[in-house]
Structures are given as structure tokens and as C-alpha cells.
Amino acid sequence: MDQPESESQQRDEADPGHRPWFHIPPAEGGDYPEAAYLAGNSLGLPPRATRAELLADVDAWAQLGVEGHLVGERPWLPYHEQLTEPAARLVGALPAETVVMNSLTVNLHLLMVSFYRPAGQRNRILIEDTAFPSDSYAVRSQVRYHGLDPEQTVRRLTPRAGEAHLRTEDIVELLRREGETVALVLLGGVNYLTGELLDLPAITTAGREAGAVVGWDLAHAAGNVPLRLHDWGVDFAAWCSYKYLNAGPGALGGVFIHQRHLGRDDLPRFEGWWSTDPATRFEMAPVSRPPAAADAWQISNPPIFAMGPVRTSLEIFDKVGMAALRSRSIRLTGYLADLLDEIGAPMVTPRDPQRRGAQLSVRVADSGGLTKRLRTEHGVVADARPPDLVRLAPVPLYSTYHDCWRAARALADLGVGA
Ligand SMILES: *Cc1c(COP(=O)(O)O)cnc(C)c1O
After folding, report:
1. How far apart are CA 167 and CA 160, in angstroms?
2. Could you tell me the pTM of the whole model?
3. Is 133 part of any known ligand binding site?
4. Residue 415, by phi and psi: left (phi above 0), alpha (psi -120 to 50) or beta?
5. Residue 278 pLDDT
6. What was the pLDDT predicted at 234?
7. Which residue intervals make up region (Disordered) (predicted)?
8. Which of 43, 111, 135 to mutate to test the pocket of ligand 1 (most atoms within 8 A of CB)?
9. Of 236-240, 282-286, 345-349, 354-358, which range is least confident?
10. What's 198's DSSP letter?
């Protein structure tokens, strides 16, 4: 590889992220003490601030017992409300449209209870053929729940022959042609496998014009690319907080429900005591009074110890801002893309920075074996999607140009692109 190491280090000096805010795992092998961690699209790294925040919540429990619901620095009853505004800012939503709760697939189910309402010939769900398996299973089971046949009802979008990604114009055209059979469009904003960023506003508009409901799975988009869910008119969305949001394994997810659906009493929802207006929650009334807010989709009282890490994470996003993060992300991932071109590694992700987020996917012979050697021999942590994809995601908060350089050199050493 021609690109000198010193050049990557100069770039890091000129364009640093916020690496000191994070714990970086040690390298398992290679020439450097820290891992070149490029798997933040799978599990983000822990902010250093998380530990103290988490312990403060445990200490409040020790000090206050049951009173902690009502008193202390962060009383538990309204605890989730602290997460609402920063989560709303992250995805471009109004606070009333947003709530942090549960995990991603659970939330997709709760949202489909409200927003997948098959009626007559309008009964199909559109997903990508490369949808994450959990999403495929979720939509198939929802279809069966309505007594329909998933083979007839779930339509999987595939790229044109010989192409690796979906084209917006093909999706829009399909919605024009067959839109009256589509009840729900449920796509990934950034595809977990190819790293393709879809044109969310165009597809949302086309889906809604066709009379369908449009929901987005933002697992790989939240904290990765700027989002304006309210302005784009998205019906609903859900995301997780353990990938680009760094809130820890299995962290709580977030949901968005557009303002036009809030307070609708014709929409079915599954309810529990957290669905009702908090002002009347402890009246223990037999009938709920749901607020005109995404909060109405909550069911149980939430896990407080899981919320601290989400709060810490969202504070970081507020401090740095998605616009600044996105611009460093475009530079950082662009640098890795140039290095991959230099070594001749076959990239599956779109070349256009506007059509991708941080992640680049590379086609290799044996992704499992290669990823293991990257980690153990070079200290480069990537993510294998067998049989033949390796995903590399420089995360603008903590990844470095030097990490990208190490990854490209290691791939070249292991014969990728040769
Ligand atoms: C990561 C991911 C999931 C994971 O679902 P959980 O319910 O959080 O376990 C689901 N869908 C997509 C698209 C993902 O990327």
C-alpha cells in the first residue's frame, strides 16, 4: 500500500473526533496497543461517562428505596421524559412524536399493531430482500397474525440484475404501479448489509401517495446520518441505541410516530399502565386515558438502569451535533473508501457519499476467517457477514484515520484485492 502511515496521522491531528470520551478496547494482535475498532455499526463503544451515571442511578435506589420514584436528582416515574427531547432532536421529530422504550423488534411489532392494517387487496408489506432477519420474521409473523399468507403478502425488493443496491426510482415506480396493494412500506434507512442509504423523503412521499403507511427501521441510520422524520412526513420509525448510539448491548430503542397519528382513537394499540396519562396513572382507574403523544405506545414501567446509558449517549450527540458528525463521517469514510480502492478491495456499498452512511461493505472470499485474522493478527475489529461480506464502519465520534489506514493495510496483507 502506497499511502504512508504518517499521512493518516496528520489527518487525525487536523480532523480529530472525540475519541478521549470513549473506552477503546485493547488490540488482540498487531503493532498497536488499541484496537482499530470498526464494528461500531454492530455494537458502539462505551462513553467514559456512562459508568458514573449508571452507578448514580443504583446509588439513588440504595438511598431512597421506593421513594426514588418521586424524589432524588432523577425521579423514576418521569425518568423516560429526560430522553425524549434529545431523541427527538436526533431524528428530527417533535418531542411528542418520540419515546425511548423497549427494544427494536418489540417496537416494530407494537407499531405494526397500529400501522399494519391490511384491508382487502391492500394487504402487502414491502421490505428489502436484504432486510435484517429480525425484520423479516417480524413482518411475516404480523401477516400470519392477521390470518394472511406471508408468501403472498410480504413483497421483498431486489436490486436489478447484476446490481448490488436498490434504486429509488425503481421503488417509486413499483409504488406507482402496484401501490393500491401495499398496506405498509417498512424499509431500513441504511441497509445493514450493503450500507446503502435509501432516499427516505422520496420513498416516504411515494408510499404515502400510493395510500400506504410508511415506516422506517433506523437501526443503522440513527446517529449515523441526519434525519428529519417529521418534515419528511414519515408515518412511524423505530431504532436501537446500541449501534451508532453507544448505549450498550441490548440498549433501549426509540420510536417515532408522526404528529398526525397522535391522539387518534381509531388506531389500535396495545396498552398498559404506562400508556395512560401520567397525571391519572395512580388513580388506578379501570379505563386508560392515553395522552396525544408517542408515550401512549408505552406499556410497562421502564427499566431505569437501562435508561442512564441512553441519556449519556444522547447528551454526546447533543453536544457534538449530527451535522458536524456527518461531515467528519463523510471525510473519514471517504478516506477509507480511497484506501480500499488503492488496494483493489471490491466494495459493495454505493460510491456516492450521499447514498451511504459510515459503513463500507467489502466482498471477500471467506469473511469469517478473514475477520478473525484481522482481529487476532492485526488488532482490526471488523464485522463478518458470511459467506462473503466484511463490514467496516469508521464511527466519526471515536474512529481515526489511522484506524482506517490500519484496516486497509491489514486487508492488503491478508490478500484482499490482490
Ligand atoms: C440491529 C438490528 C435489529 C436488532 O433488533 P433487536 O430487536 O434490537 O434485537 C433489527 N433490525 C435491524 C435492521 C437491525 O440492524
Report:
1. 8
2. 0.97
3. yes
4. left
5. 87
6. 98
7. 1-25
8. 135
9. 282-286
10. P
| 131 alpha carbon – ligand 1 mean position (Å) | 10
Question: Where, residue-wise, is CATH 3.40.640.10 in the chain?
Answer: 80-301
Q: List, by residue range, all CATH 3.90.1150.10 domains of the chain.
A: 5-48+321-413
Asked if residue 225 lies in contact with residue 195, where contact means CB atoms within 8 angstroms, the answer is: no
The pLDDT of 104-119, averaged and rounded, is: 98
Nearest CA to ligand 1 atom 2: 219
Residue 34 has which C-alpha cell? 488499541
Q: Which of 62, 132, 176 shows the shortest CA–CA distance to 385?
A: 132
279 pLDDT band, cuts 50/70/90, is confident
Give the Cα separation of 208 and 269 in Å (integer): 21
Size (the chain), residues: 418
Beta pairing class for 36-37 and 380-381: parallel
Task: Determine the 3-state secondary structure of 369 from DSSP.
Answer: helix
Q: How large is the average pLDDT for residues 328-348?
A: 97
Q: Which pLDDT tens digit goes with each residue over 216-225?
A: 999 999 999 9
CB atoms within 10 A of CB 330: 17
CB 331 within 8 A of CB 325: no
pLDDT tens, residue by residue, 61-94: 999 999 999 999 999 999 999 999 999 999 999 9
Report the candidate in 195, 280, 186 with the shortest Cα–Cα distance to residue 237. Answer: 186
pLDDT at 247: 98
CATH T-level assignment (fold) for domain 80-301 = Aspartate Aminotransferase; domain 2 (3.40.640)
pLDDT given at position 1: 80
Q: Does the Cβ of 192 fall within 6 Å of ligand 1?
A: yes
